[in-house]
Amino acid sequence: xxxxxxxxxxxxxxxxxxxxxxxxxxxxxxxxxxxxxxxxxxxxxxxxxxxxxxxxxxxxxxxxxxxxxxxxxxxxxxxxxxxxxxxxxxxxxxxxxxxxxxxxxxxxxxxxxxxxxxxxxxxxxxxxxxxxxxxxxxxxxxxxxxxxxxxxxxxxxxxxxxxxxxxxxxxxxxxxxxxxxxxxxxxxxxxxxxxxxxxxxxxxxxxxxxxxxxxxxxxxxxxxxxxxxxxxxxxxxxxxx
Length: 241
Ligand SMILES: Cc1cc2nc3c(=O)[nH]c(=O)nc-3n(C[C@H](O)[C@H](O)[C@H](O)COP(=O)(O)OP(=O)(O)OC[C@H]3O[C@@H](n4cnc5c(N)ncnc54)[C@H](O)[C@@H]3O)c2cc1C
Prior knowledge:
The protein is of the alpha/beta class. Helix content is 22%, strand content 32%.
């Protein structure tokens, strides 16, 4: 694994309590959509006993873009406090890229991406790159959030569906009653029924799952109950967000 120095270019809010951080792309940094990096922050002063300076993030930017972007919910942890306090041009270390949650090469075989919350990040990277290349591969994204306000990159994904004919998006909200925004799309958790209905016209897809650990586990069970072979399910566990 390689180590790179990079500078923070800026950050922006992409959903309620959720920020994207933009970094310069170091020379020679190459990655595949869906891969992740370890972000290593400068040590805070004074050093805190519970502060781990390193955290893994999927890259939300796509390889064709000239910057590296990560996105995360800004929960109150020492790491996130330091991340949020970084000034523009602060120097960080990036280690990677790594991870095998990357789109399979057989374009005739569809991909079904199942995302919970900010776990959507690796899929945004895949979809940006696939749309850019107009990849002739059917891709379905099932994307669950509590409320529309929590759904990072939803507007971009909706637009992407318009200009990339192989891509279909199903966004669902699980706590829409707590939302101040109107929502006339799908509601309720992604469960066996939703997966069966949504995937009925996709022949032998490869499934990719990213989200809270409980959701990843429950989706693996749902897919297994639907008779999907383990070889056709890809996910990675990111704990501690
Ligand atoms: C491959 C991968 C990449 C990731 N990349 C990142 C990253 O780049 N940045 C980052 O911050 N985090 C990342 N994560 C971590 C991740 O998604 C966190 O666990 C997430 O932050 C959880 O909080 P949330 O607020 O987004 O989800 P929540 O709002 O808690 O949940 C999102 C949705 O999932 C649904 N859900 C929850 N549990 C279940 C269940 N058992 N069955 C069905 N639906 C359920 C909820 O109802 C909700 O609609 C990644 C995880 C994986 C596996």
